[in-house]
Every structure is written in structure tokens, then in C-alpha cells.
Write a structure and sequence with these properties.
The structure holds 2 protein chains of 2 kinds.
Chain A lengths: L25 E4 L7 H4 L1 H5 L5 E5 L16 E5 L10 H5 L5 E4 L4
Antiparallel strand pairs in A: 1-4, 2-3
Chain B lengths: L2 H6 L36 H15 L3 H19 L5 E5 L2 H10 L3 E4 L2 H7 L11 E4 L18 E3 L1 H14 L2 E6 L5 E7 L5 H9 L2 E3 L3 E5 L19 E4 L4 E4 L9 H5 L5 E5 L11
Parallel strand pairs in B: 1-7
Antiparallel strand pairs in B: 1-5, 2-3, 2-4, 3-6, 5-6, 8-11, 9-10
Classes of the chains: A alpha+beta, B alpha+beta.
């Protein structure tokens, strides 16, 4: 096994730490309304900044998931710092599950 | 100097050393903490996505919190992937990717999980078959059919090289993936921002090392056609309008070699990073 304490590793921080904290919009997704996100995935396709990510919540050994079954997949807003509140996802969502709020500075 | 080459290179570039593709490297991490549920290399997009979300949330709370989140994310990547310092991949140019395909066996293509999560592209789409698996890791599709949904497309060495060249023509960045310490298990062909690994590197600064090369432009040969400019995923390549030539920022260059393979006049060449004094510690 490699002794990790002896290894020098490079560091890279593209985020400007002096600029933090930054304000970003709050995106909430109602998972009771949005049950089959990977079957619908309109928000994934609508977002120009790829804010949303959809993943298989129940990763099971020896089994494939069915995207049409409710509750298997879940969509979350990951890259919120990229969101510029164009509200395309809110308009596209057939279940009206997405809300975006931007606090005034 | 590349630390991986020092440790694992045996005198060559570490990813061209056949020992790093060996079966016995593919082991479970011994020091996995009780919270870990996934074995090494078991692709868990949920874990990655939640790490990224935690880091973005920390941006809202201030620099200390962000650094804490980054340290946690690095440790998590180390724990689940067996990497060091959160670096579990490295950008490789096309010619090295082709040499890697000669070393490893078996070779296969599976659907890209990042593009599935980011863009909602389903596994059965043929254009999503870009995740190239190297070595014995490909044989565990039976145990984790969810990750290998859409099937494994087994390839010979020549077919693999052809796929790599085709993906290169399309404009995908090649990068190797480590699954466990010094076990190279795949070549990812992706782009920003569809690739989770590249997105983590460019937004938060870990997960993917720069390659062993840097691209340089020969101004005598460059005629300013601009074909290379659209292929740079890292914002390193710009058009120098005054001179009407391509201009590469070597500090930003990841050495993926996409500009080199696109150049019709062979004006761009890849130089070794460790031979350039100011760049040899820029990874």
C-alpha cells in the first residue's frame, strides 16, 4: 500500500477565495411532484448552463434501474453558481416542481 | 517532475508503464472508513454529484467553509477511488492514448455516465458510447449492470485506436481514469461541462491532472485558419488577431493535443512539460 503522507500533491484552486462568499440563486425542486426526472429530463435539456444533474438514487448490485419507475432517479441543482435565472427550467417543467429565488443584494 | 512518474513510472511516463495496468493493482482500499458503502471503482455518480453540490453550497458560505468542503471532497475521492490528493485522472494526448490501448487488455466501450447525468443522454444512444474501459474492471459489468447499462462494446486494439481517432476528430479530450492506486482502468473521452471530472478540475481544482505535454505554436507555419481555436476546452487557445496567428497560453494548456491533431499545417506541436522549467510543477 502506498504511504500517502509521503506524497507531495499539486494544489490548484481556480476559485478566487477573496471573492467568497458569493450570492447565488436558490433552486428548490419538489421531489413529490418530480418523480420520473430521467424519463422527462426537460430541465436538463432546457438549462443553458447545465445546472441540473440527474442521477440514479438506488444503485443496486445485480440490477438495472427503470427510469419510468417513480423515485428511482432524482434531479438536483448542482452548479448553482452558474445559474443566471433565465427561468427556462421553470417554464419547461411539466409538473411545476422547480422554483428559483434570488435574494436581493 | 511528475510525482506519479517518480513513484510508479519505473523510468518512463507512469501511464505507459505496463505494471500500472496489472490485475493485482485492482484492490479494495484497506483504509476505507465505516461510512463508505461503495467498493473501489464502483462508479457512483450520486457520490460525485453530491460532492460537487456540497462545494458549490460552500461557495455561498465563505472561504473557510469552501476550503473545508474541498478537503472533504479530496478525501472522499481518495477513499473511494484510492487516489492521492484527489487526483484520479490525467489528460493524455491521442498518441499516448493509442499506446495505452496497446498495453491494456481487454478493451471495451460503455456509455458515459457524466453525460447521462448532465445532459440526460440515455445509454442506448450510440453517440454516448465514449467511456473506454481498460483492463479487468470491464469484467464486472455482471455485478453492476446499472453502470454498464446499454451494454459493453468489446474492441480489438486496432478498433480501439480507430475509435480514439474518431473521438479525437469530434473534439473530445482524452483522459485516463485511475481506479485504485496505480490501476489505470479507463480512458474518458469528454468535454467541458458535460464531463464531471473536467468540470471539477476547471471549477474547483481537483480530480484531473494536466497532461505530460504542452502545445506550442510555430508562428512560421501557422496561417491563422483558426481551426484549432474551437477545439480547446480549457480556454488556453485564442486567436491573436493582431498577428493573425493562433496563440496558446501555456499556463492554461492541459496538453490534450486536440489542437495538434486538428492543425492542417502541422504548426502546433506537443512539447514535454518536464523539459520546460516554469511549467514542470504546473499540473
Amino acid at each position: 500500500m502506498v504511504d500517502k503522507s509521503k506524497i507531495k500533491v499539486p494544489k490548484a484552486t481556480p476559485q478566487d477565495l477573496t471573492r467568497l462568499p458569493i450570492k447565488m440563486p436558490k433552486i428548490t425542486i419538489d421531489h413529490n411532484k418530480c418523480t420520473v426526472p430521467f424519463w422527462c429530463k426537460k430541465c436538463l435539456q432546457a438549462c443553458p448552463q447545465l445546472v441540473f444533474q440527474c442521477y440514479c438514487k438506488h444503485l443496486e448490485k445485480l440490477r438495472e434501474s427503470d427510469p419510468r419507475q417513480p423515485g428511482i432517479y432524482e434531479v438536483i441543482a448542482v452548479r448553482r453558481d452558474k445559474c443566471h435565472v433565465c427561468n427556462k427550467c421553470v417554464e419547461m417543467c411539466p409538473e411545476n416542481a422547480i422554483t428559483i429565488t434570488l435574494e436581493e443584494a | 517532475m511528475c510525482h506519479y512518474c517518480e513513484m510508479w513510472g519505473d523510468g518512463t511516463i507512469w501511464y505507459l508503464n505496463p505494471r500500472n495496468y496489472a490485475r493485482h493493482m485492482y484492490t479494495l482500499p484497506k483504509e476505507a472508513k465505516p461510512g463508505a458503502t461503495k467498493a473501489v471503482g464502483e462508479a457512483d455518480p450520486a457520490g460525485y454529484i453530491n460532492l460537487e453540490r456540497a462545494m458549490v453550497d460552500a461557495l455561498e458560505r465563505g472561504p473557510e467553509e469552501y476550503e473545508k468542503a474541498m478537503k472533504f471532497a479530496r478525501d472522499m475521492v481518495d477513499m473511494t477511488q484510492g487516489s492521492v490528493g484527489g487526483w484520479m485522472g490525467q489528460v493524455v494526448p491521442l498518441r499516448d492514448a493509442e499506446r495505452m490501448a496497446e498495453i491494456s487488455n481487454p478493451l471495451g466501450l460503455i456509455a458515459c455516465i457524466c453525460r447521462k447525468a448532465m445532459l440526460g443522454i440515455e445509454e442506448r444512444c450510440p453517440e454516448n458510447m465514449t467511456c473506454m474501459g481498460l483492463g479487468v474492471g470491464m469484467l464486472k459489468w455482471e455485478r453492476w449492470p446499472e453502470r454498464y447499462k446499454g451494454g459493453v462494446h468489446w474492441l480489438t486494439i486496432e478498433e480501439t485506436k480507430q475509435w480514439l481517432r474518431d473521438l479525437d476528430t469530434k473534439g473530445f479530450v482524452h483522459s485516463l481514469m485511475m481506479f485504485g492506486p496505480r490501476f489505470i482502468g479507463g480512458i474518458c473521452n469528454c468535454d467541458y461541462p458535460a464531463c464531471d471530472a473536467l468540470t471539477m478540475r476547471l471549477d474547483h481544482g481537483f480530480n484531473m491532472l494536466k497532461g505530460h505535454h504542452v502545445a506550442m505554436v510555430d508562428y512560421d507555419l501557422c496561417n491563422g485558419c483558426g481551426i484549432c481555436v474551437q477545439r480547446c476546452q480549457f480556454g488556453a487557445l485564442k486567436m491573436n488577431v493582431t498577428l493573425d496567428k493562433a496563440n496558446i497560453d501555456q499556463m492554461r494548456c492541459f496538453g490534450c493535443g486536440l489542437c495538434e491533431t486538428a492543425c492542417p499545417r502541422k504548426a502546433i506541436s506537443l512539447k514535454e512539460r518536464i523539459k520546460i522549467p516554469s511549467l514542470q510543477e504546473v499540473w
